[in-house]
Specification:
By secondary structure, the protein is mainly β. The protein folds into two domains: 62 residues, SH3 Domains (SH3 type barrels, Roll), CATH 2.30.30.40; 60 residues, SH3 Domains (SH3 type barrels). Helix content is 12%, strand content 47%. The protein has one helix and 14 strands, in the order αββββββββββββββ. It is elongated. It starts with a helix and ends with a strand.
Amino acid sequence: MSNWRRALVALSLISAAGAALAIDYRSVSVPAAILFDAPSLQGKKLYLIKAQTPVEVVVKLDGWFKVRDAEGTLAWIESRSIGERRTVVVIAPRAEIRQSDRAEAAVLAELDKWVAVDFIEPASPGWAKVRHRDGATGYIRSTQVWGL
């Protein structure tokens, strides 16, 4: 096999591995959902998770998702409780939504820890475009939120 062909094969394998490792973030779509220790309604109930809370889907299993929350807890949730909508949650003691993706941009809103905002799109490195439920739309530092 030629060096060119080997390089092409290696590149395609790296691309496939990257796609396979893509993180799947979603959000709770019901007012409150129960998290379980096993993928069954007979499993031990661990805690409630509220609407709009982002979770990372780790495993998909016949009507159930194993998810990780912002604190790193792993648990099972019924897949019908999770929607496609993407939110992020503030993990810093305080975060700001800014008018643009620059540290010196005007502050549109200040958010407390655990406030969820809608994720709109990635922005320049280190920033994400978000929308607060009160309508403020702007940019937040990616280090201040979880769910990206």
